[in-house]
Amino acid sequence: DSPESLPSTMVLLENVQETVKDCMLIMLVEIISGLSEDDGDFSVEMIPEIRAAVVTFTGDIAAGEFAEKLNQHHRARQQNITARCLALTTSVRAENVPPDTPSDYITVYFENKKNGGAQVVNVQQLPEEDAAIITFHDHKGNA
């Protein structure tokens, strides 16, 4: 399967105010999806730097339908929270990478099981931005 043919299991929630707690988002996702975070059906990762959160579903769910339902839900609208599916990708951007970091170190870091354990096929360093673009063999490497 190519990444384009696989449905996304990740939904980005945008416009999440700093006063919104993760437990409120979890309950909102549970209400809309009928799933349970306690049962491991999904997880929520807050990203306060960009006023967002990512909902990752572990099972078979139509993430697009969930995003549509959330966008129409009165509580989400009241909070001005919007949802959209995240596209599957085989690359991630790592930030705060010192410019003198060897690309072999970055490769081994991401291939280590503690850090994902995915096969890295390319590392493009961006020393002027203290960043690197890491490309994995498949989309599961960047989850």
Automatic annotation (TrEMBL):
A Pfam family this chain is assigned to: RRM_PARP14_3
Alphabetical list of Gene3D superfamilies matching this protein: 3.30.70.330
InterPro entries (UniProt xref): Nucleotide-bd_a/b_plait_sf, RRM_PARP14_2
Residue ranges constituting the PARP14 second RRM domain according to the UniProt record: 8-86
Name of the molecule in the record: Poly [ADP-ribose] polymerase 14
